[in-house]
């Protein structure tokens, strides 16, 4: 199992995809360790693999709730990922298949691998910070343009499909003018969540600019993109957004434009312009709707 850091929340959270060989209850699958846990402090001072038998000999750790819970889950050895003197992940392993004890050289090998993994995780996090819009969690404009070009090049070479969704919050200026920029920011954050939640793993959700968000959909047909656009639009329409000033509900709707890759497209601009025109049509035909570009 792997516990990954959620820095903003001040904890390490169990990565669902890493649960292999462990039979965990729903409660156990939601297990978290706080960053200020004595266990994390211990690993920051001594960043190396340690068995449960060793931990049970440590007065400072043997009785803490985290150890009790990890033992219940079947943990036999803990291996911290470390970078720049900070723990940035935790590997949790069960029994060896041979039922033998872990040897010192095996623990040293695990520690070495974990240190390399810790550096890789740190580098990946730095890359993430450089490519993500901090307010919304969406990819930044430059990243969007780079990836869109890559996907369009792939379409030209392999004949695959590609669709682009453009979304725009209806009457967004009115939110800012009426309720203030703080309320406007809350609206953007909540809408971005719906775009991110709707995106599949190979999709690229990004912030194009202002209140315009987009979704690059490699391999998608126009019909599939329209379904996805409607999914996002309906999710936004049904969500409840609280005004941060007085707690009242804010009604939010979204217009969506869809375009698909054409072999005649010279560059990103051609595909983007069609999505933008479809979005313009959605805005000027009543808003709160999804429209696909047609010649």
Automatic annotation (TrEMBL):
Enzyme Commission (EC) number: 2.7.7.65
Catalytic EC class: transferase
Record-linked SMART domains: GGDEF
MF terms (GO), sorted A to Z: diguanylate cyclase activity
Cited PROSITE patterns: GGDEF (PS50887)
Gene3D superfamilies membership: 3.30.450.40, 3.30.70.270
Catalytic activity: 2 GTP = 3',3'-c-di-GMP + 2 diphosphate
Entry-linked InterPro entries: Diguanylate_Cyclase, GAF, GAF-like_dom_sf, GGDEF_dom, Nucleotide_cyclase, Rev_trsase/Diguanyl_cyclase
SUPFAM superfamilies: GAF domain-like, Nucleotide cyclase
Protein name: diguanylate cyclase
